[in-house]
Design brief:
The structure is a single chain. The protein is an alpha/beta fold. The protein has 2 domains: 2-28 and 255-296 and 331-514, no CATH class; 37-248, Rossmann fold, CATH 3.40.50.11440. The protein contains 20 helices and 18 strands. Strands 3-17-13-14-15-16 form a 6-stranded parallel sheet, with helices on one face. Strands 6-5-4-9-10-11 form a 6-stranded mixed sheet, sandwiched between helices.
């Protein structure tokens, strides 16, 4: 069986046993056109769920904070105009018509501990008009280390400190504009994470929350999301928050690359030809050109549902909508997963993924993309196809490089690294300066992505990396290495004690659901 798989920026044909199953995302649910989005946004604000209409929430004296997610989602990047531009342009028109003065409106990119967005990136997302009218005086990136602008709202009933941006507390209304690509995002996570400080985020992004429960990628059954909800309940006592959530379909590829994410039986004759020849053409294409081709791709994502209102009323509808789009049925758990990881990560926008993100993307994200239970058996094996280049972006990934060289050299255990290194990295003056002024991820950020792999690191019997020329990167990451897929499969069979193989074609993104469970769709 042939598996068309990524390995970084390379697309290759991998030969798997005929008994292997290759899983594909469902076809995209038809979404709204760019022309339809502004009116759909207006209808949502005029008919919100669980709250009065927007018109009744503001007046001529209202101070309004408009928050929006950074470019971690949706990813890869969409074409222009971005949904957030269209939504916020219409929202501003509505606010002005209700008497809200422009001087009383602020916009903030809710980056949490991610790197801040550069002006050119904000302009790509929001458009020139919004940038011209608001940047830089009333449009900015959130800064979790600007302690003079943070507010201490006390603790939850579990003792979790609630440390939130003061501008949100002082606003008469916070409107959070959110594009939801996977169930991880949105809901209580929006303000309570996007505008929170380190000591609050550390309450739920830790190995204790993920050691016994694998659920980090959806609210249901997740200790992490339960903590976030408790924190947001405190936030809601001090802030009036209205969310606008757009459920985004999985139309990842423009038409000329659409064959990558489709099973052969859904491809037309031209697409089948492209599937056949692309691995050969990519093999002879130099890596810099392959990277330019992949980086130049713009997705065809479109919202297919838009709701506004309270978190408690809106987010369950978003989660249900995403389940309709993302569910792929499986009938069993598998012994082995083979996955070709592209040079793609929400934490490597405008950059290459680094070796730490190779582990995080597969074990923190992909492993957890299921609804009922992991699609890999306990003691199973994951085979990752990726070159894992030891390249760290000189601006964005400053703490990642030191984490790779220092922390992982000392320990791979999430609990030990938390005890020995986390606080020092979070409070490191150089890392704080890089986060605040040089577009780096926060010093704590590489720990958070490693912590999400806590459960699979103990659940799996082996993780095997295929792609690097030798075992250098694998040893640093604490995983195994094989020179080829064939060798990796032999190692995997021995470690797992079985031979059932699953290979996911991602992107587009999907979550597995057990056959017969509510809301499932068939694979392929």
């Amino acid at each position: 069986m042939n598996y068309l798989a990524y390995s970084g920026n390379h697309l290759m044909r991998v030969r798997l046993p005929e008994t292997a199953e290759v899983l594909y995302a469902p076809p995209p649910i038809p979404g709204l056109s760019r022309a339809e989005i502004p009116d759909a946004v207006q209808r949502a604000f005029e008919n919100p769920l669980g709250m009065p209409p927007l018109k009744q929430l503001v007046n001529g004296d209202s101070r309004v904070l408009i928050a929006f997610d950074d470019n971690c989602q949706p990813f890869p990047m969409t074409g222009r105009p971005d949904f957030r531009q269209l939504a916020i342009e219409r929202l501003l028109e509505m606010l002005y018509s209700y008497g809200v003065e422009k001087k009383n409106i602020r916009l903030v990119c809710a980056v949490a501990l991610h790197r801040k967005m550069k002006p050119r990136e904000l302009e790509w997302m929001l458009g020139r008009k919004i940038m011209r009218e608001f940047y830089p005086d009333r449009l900015e990136n959130f800064d979790a280390e600007d302690h003079e602008r943070m507010a201490d709202l006390g603790e939850t009933d579990h003792g979790e400190p609630v440390y939130i941006w003061r501008d949100a507390v002082e606003a008469d209304l916070v409107i959070y504009v959110d594009t939801i690509q996977i169930p991880l995002n949105g809901g209580h996570k929006s303000v309570a994470v996007g505008l929170a400080g380190y000591k609050t985020i550390a309450c739920h992004h830790n190995p204790e929350k993920t050691a016994e429960s694998p659920h980090v990628m959806q609210p249901e059954g997740s200790q992490m999301h339960a903590s976030i909800e408790r924190i947001n309940r405190v936030v809601e006592q001090h802030c009036r928050v209205m969310v606008l959530e757009a459920s985004i379909n999985n139309a990842t590829y423009p038409w000329y690359f659409d064959f990558i994410g489709k099973p052969p039986e859904r491809c037309n004759a031209i697409e089948r030809l492209a599937r056949a020849v692309t691995p050969y053409t990519m093999a002879v294409t130099p890596e810099p050109i392959r990277r330019r081709i992949m980086r130049g791709m713009r997705t065809a994502y479109a919202p297919f549902e838009i709701h506004a209102g309270s978190v408690g009323e809106v987010h369950p509808k978003t989660v249900a909508a995403m389940r309709r789009q993302m569910s792929v049925e499986v009938s069993r758990q598998y012994d082995i997963m083979v996955f070709g990881l592209p040079d793609l990560s929400p934490y490597a926008i405008d950059a290459r993924i680094n070796p730490v993100l190779v582990v995080s993307d597969v074990l923190g994200y992909l492993f957890n993309w299921f609804y009922e239970r992991p699609y890999i058996k306990p003691g199973g094996v994951v085979i990752i196809l990726n070159p894992a280049f030891e390249i760290f972006h000189p601006e964005y990934h400053v703490p990642y490089e030191r984490f790779y060289e220092e922390v992982l050299a000392a320990t791979k255990d999430p609990f030990e690294m938390k005890e020995r290194f986390q606080q020092r990295y979070a409070e490191d003056p150089y890392f704080i300066d890089c986060y605040r002024n040089r577009y780096a991820h926060h010093g704590f950020h590489p720990f958070t992505v490693w912590y999400w792999a806590t459960y699979p690191l103990k659940y799996l019997s082996k993780v095997i990396l295929v792609g690097p020329k030798d075992d250098r990167q694998a040893k640093k990451l604490g995983v195994s290495w094989a020179p080829s897929v064939e060798d990796a499969l032999a190692m995997a069979r021995e470690a797992a004690g079985g031979d059932s193989i699953m290979a996911p074609t991602v992107p587009p993104f999907f979550y597995t659901t057990e056959r017969g469970a509510t809301g499932g769709r068939t694979a392929g």
